[in-house]
Write a structure and sequence with these properties.
Blueprint lengths: L2 H34 L1 H6 L4 E7 L1 E17 L2 E5 L6 E3 L7 E2 L4 E5 L2 H29 L5 H26 L2 E3 L4 E6 L12 E7 L3 E8 L11 E6 L6 E9 L9 E8 L11 E16 L12 E5 L4 E6 L1 E6 L2 E6 L6 E5 L8 E8 L9
Parallel strand pairs: 1-20
Antiparallel strand pairs: 1-19, 2-10, 2-14, 3-9, 4-6, 5-8, 6-7, 8-9, 10-13, 11-12, 11-14, 12-13, 14-18, 15-16, 15-19, 16-20, 17-18
Helix pairs in contact: 3-4
Length: 367
């Protein structure tokens, strides 16, 4: 065989090999595109490639921050229990008082006189009862006379107790550590029974009223632990728990009040002190990656779920807390449902799909 013939044979073999390689590359590229690019797969009438993860029950931990102010934990209204002229009101708005501190002092002279008279009458009734008991033992008095003496002694004793209480009520003192919120009486005025005198706000414990954004309303709950830092005491943390949640959202700020109760034995925290609260939420919840959720800021959040028929089904869900790229699912999904996390944007309802990756994210610890 001539040298020219050999050369042609070699060129033919090389050409065939190069053609085969090109064909393989083209076939692989076409396969890859139709199995990874949704547009190409749709043109080729092949199942649409997607990636999925299963909805999984996990521990979700979140910290919710909100600014707020210190407020008294509850109001206490001090009222007049006797009618008398006011001599002293040694407190004013904003005054911090401790248990036993004087709030209002009234004229005691009439009440002291009434108490002295009541004691004299009681002493007389008591002695009369003793005399009647002695006569009864000698059969010189009847049972009716003895019973009458006992009744009179009891009534006299009751009068003494009432007089003592009325005298004590001429001095109105604080029953709790508190701040004066309202003062409705002045020296020289005459009080009326059940008239409001001073309104107090309890300062131990106090409430941190944190203004939480409305999108966190599902993450705050009664008993939730809170840590509060204040501008007045930098570096000092006060711990407590949520004891009250506002039932309405503020129309102007779109926030709601979460009330964290804090111990304040030394009365350091005053009404109006500003600070920042961090509420810690820890709970078990069904969760999916947030990238799987569509219309997440709308009223109807949706996801695509892959059914046993290998089709993508659009499903509406009710979402809760969002933590570090994960969304809590409160309704619409079951544990183990395969949710599309990649390729869902252009996906259509009831479209055939091919799952080319199922990420084992449920094995990863979520914090």
């Amino acid at each position: 065989m001539s040298e020219g013939t050999n050369r042609r044979l070699r060129d033919l073999v090389v050409g065939l090999l190069l053609g085969a390689i090109v064909a393989v590359v083209l076939i692989y590229t076409g396969y890859h595109l139709t199995h990874t690019v949704q547009k190409d797969a749709r043109l080729a009438k092949l199942p649409i490639p997607v990636q999925t993860v299963p909805a999984t029950v996990k521990v979700l931990r979140a910290t919710i921050g909100a600014s707020g102010t210190i407020q008294p934990s509850m109001p206490v209204t001090m009222t007049a229990k006797v009618a008398s002229r006011v001599l002293k009101v040694p407190v004013d708005l904003g005054t911090v008082v401790k248990p036993g501190d004087l709030l209002v002092e009234m004229d005691q002279r009439l009440f002291k006189t009434n108490l002295e008279a009541a004691r004299v009458n009681h002493d007389h009734a008591r002695k009369q009862l003793h005399r009647m008991q002695a006569l009864m033992r000698r059969n010189f008095a009847s049972a009716v006379d003895l019973e009458k003496a006992r009744t009179e002694e009891a009534e006299a004793r009751d009068t003494v107790v009432r007089a003592e209480i009325n005298l004590a009520n001429t001095r109105v003192v604080s029953p709790v550590p508190a701040v004066v919120l309202e003062r409705e009486i002045n020296p020289g005025e005459i009080t009326k029974v059940d008239q409001d005198l001073v309104q107090l706000g309890v300062l131990d414990p106090v409430m941190m009223v944190a203004q939480v954004p409305e999108d966190k309303i599902g993450a705050v709950y009664l008993g939730m632990r809170g840590v509060v830092g204040t501008d007045a005491f930098p570096g000092v943390n006060f711990t407590g728990s949520v004891t009250k949640i506002d039932s309405r959202v503020n129309d102007a700020t779109r926030t709601f009040g979460a009330y964290a109760q804090l111990a304040n034995h030394d009365l350091r925290l005053k009404k109006g002190v500003t600070g920042y609260a961090r509420f810690e939420s820890t709970r078990m919840a069904l969760a999916i990656p947030s990238t799987a959720v569509m219309n997440s800021v709308g009223d109807r959040a949706t996801v695509f779920v892959i059914g046993d028929d290998k089709k993508a089904h659009l499903r509406e869900i009710r979402q809760g807390l969002t933590v570090e790229g994960m969304t809590e699912v409160l309704g619409g999904l079951n544990e183990g449902d395969q949710v599309v996390t990649t390729g869902q944007v252009d996906l259509r309802d009831n479209e055939r799909v091919s799952v080319n990756q199922s990420a084992p994210w449920n094995k990863v610890s979520v914090k």
